[in-house]
Every structure is written in C-alpha cells, then in structure tokens.
Design goal:
Keywords: Chaperone, Membrane, Transmembrane, Transmembrane helix. It comes from Dyella acidiphila. Pfam families: DnaJ. This is J domain-containing protein. By secondary structure, this protein is α+β, with helices and mostly antiparallel strands. Among the domains are: 66 residues, Orthogonal Bundle (Helix Hairpins), CATH 1.10.287.110; 53 residues, no CATH class. The protein is 38% helix and 8% strand. The chain contains 7 helices and 4 strands; from the N terminus they run ααααααββββα.
Length: 232
C-alpha cells in the first residue's frame, strides 16, 4: 500500500520537508487535522468550511498511516535519508524447499528363465502333417479316382428349377404371382411404374419392361409392338 501513496503530496499538505524530524512531522499532521476537521476548530472560529475538507482529511489520514507503516519497517520517514550507521533491512528471500528425491524403485528378483520350448511344438506338428500327407499320396489310386468321384457328384447333383418368367398367354393370376400387385390397372393394362403388361381376354399379349422397374422377363418386349401408353 505504501508504494501507492504519494508522500510528496502529503509533505506539501503538511508544509514540511521530507527530511524533517518525526516530532515536526507529527506536529504538522495534528495542525492540519485541526484545520480541516470541523469538530476540532478553535472556539469562536466561524470561517468558511471548504466542501472538500472532509475528503482531504480522509486522504491525509490514509497517507499518514502509510507513512507510519513505512517508519516501522524502515526506521525513517518516506523520502528521508537513512540514519548514519544503520543499514536498511531487506526482506530475506524465503528459502525454497529442496526437491525431494524420488523413492528408489523396488528391485524384484527375476525368476530364472526357462528354456524356450514353445517353438518346438509347431515344428513337431508340421512334421506329423508332412508324414501323413506323404502316406496319403502313396496310397492314392492311380486311375484318376478323384475325377471319377467328381463326375459321380456332378451326376447326382439336382439342379434348382428356374424361377418363373413372364410369357405370352399367361393368366392374370400367374402374372400377379410373379410380378405382384400392379401399381395401377387401366382396363386390360396393368402398370408397374414405367413397366406395363397388357391382357386380352385375361391372357398376356404384350408387355414392356423398363430398366427403372424391370419385370421378371428376359426380353424388354415380346415383339415389335407399339406401346399402349403411347397410343393413349
């Protein structure tokens, strides 16, 4: 706080010099307080009271307390030269604690190493497989028995039936079972989005399979016929 006080301003207010004695400093302070404090004016003094007298009195009190604190710390008033033969005391730096060394790591006794025998197991298994494969190659039939077994498997294999496809003459029930319910029905024309199927007396006579929604058929159209949608 003493570093923020303007002691020169205090000396000007008290009308003393920085090298004045302590008694002179205190006497000037009491005289200034009696001048500014309304309750300490001499009897019969009816002079004009400045409106800022209270603020100036409060400021001088703060500055005076700071000067007394400076006197207790340094043995002199602020701005006064130090007494002869007296060395101002400096605050000794706080000794830093020495870093504590880390605790020693516990040394655990290592177990004796065992002989590495794990890699012997895969080698032994590989040797057994090689011997078994060699014996199988010797006992294999020389007349192409493996090919004969493959042909037998091909002969006994049952091919899955091909899925039903859209064809001419198919009934509406079969078309519904293959393609599902149409999006829209207009007379004899069933529309499946951009694709369509046309019937005549309940039988398929034409269709168009669009790549955007293809029908279950190999050909896009059964014949070179004009689209009924285009005619409409």
């Amino acid at each position: 706080m003493a570093n923020e006080i303007d002691f020169l301003e205090l000396y000007r207010q008290l009308r003393v010099s920085p090298d004045c004695s302590l008694e002179e400093f205190k006497r000037a302070y009491r005289r200034c307080v009696s001048t500014l404090h309304p309750d300490r004016r001499p009897p019969g003094h009816d002079g004009y009271i400045h409106p800022r007298s209270g603020q100036r009195l409060q400021q001088i009190n703060v500055q005076y307390e700071a000067a007394m604190e400076f006197l207790r710390l340094h043995g002199r008033l602020p701005g006064a030269p130090p007494p002869q033969g007296v060395t101002p005391q400096r605050a000794s730096p706080t000794p830093r604690p020495s870093p504590t060394p880390p605790p020693p790591r516990p040394t655990s006794a290592r177990a004796p190493r065992r002989p590495q025998v794990k890699w012997l197991i895969p080698i032994a298994l590989l040797a057994v497989v090689i011997l078994f494969w060699g014996a199988s190659a010797v006992n294999a039939p020389a007349d192409g028995g493996a090919d004969g077994a493959t042909r037998d498997n091909d002969a006994t294999r049952v091919e899955a039936p091909a899925p039903p496809m859209l064809s001419l003459g198919m009934s509406q029930e079969n078309v519904r079972a293959i393609e599902g319910n149409p999006v829209e029905i207009r007379d004899d024309l069933w529309e499946y989005g951009p694709s369509w199927v046309r019937f005549d007396h309940g039988s398929v006579v034409d269709w168009y399979s669009s790549p955007l929604h293809s029908l279950k058929t190999v050909q896009a159209k059964p014949a070179q016929t004009e689209s009924p949608v285009a005619r409409n």
